[in-house]
Amino acid sequence: MATVSELRVHRGRRSEGWLLVLSWALAVLARGLVDYHADYLELDELAWYAAGFAGVLTVLHIVLRIFAPHSDQVLVPVVTGLIGIALAEIRRIDFAYAARGRETDFGTTQIGWALLGALAFIIVLIVIRDHRVLRRFTYTAGILGIVLYLLPAVPGLGKEINGAKIWIGVGGHSLQPGEFAKILLVIFFAGYLQTNRDALALAGPKFLGMRLPRMRDMGPLAVMFAAALLIMVNQKDLGAALLFFGIFIGMVYIATERISWVVIGLVLFVFGAIAAGVLFNHVGARYDAWLHALDADVYSSGRSEQLVRGLFGMASGGLFGTGLGNGRPDLVPYAESDFIIASLGEELGLTGLMAILTLYVILVQRAMRTAIGVRDGFGKLLSAGLGFAVTLQVFIIVGGVTRLIPLTGLTTPFLAYGGSSMLANWIVIALILRISDQARQPAANAAPKAEESGPRRRRPDLEEAPQR
Amino acid sequence: MSQLSITLLRLGFLLLLWSLVLTAIAVLRSDLYGTRVVTRGRGRTAKRRDDARAQKSAAPARAGTGVRTGAVSPKERAAAHLAVTAGPLKGATVPLGSAPILVGRAAMCTLVIEDDYCSSRHCRIFPEDGIWKVEDLGSTNGTFIGNQRVDDPVPFRPGDVIRIGATTLELRS
Question: What is the predicted ipTM?
Answer without folding.
Answer: 0.84
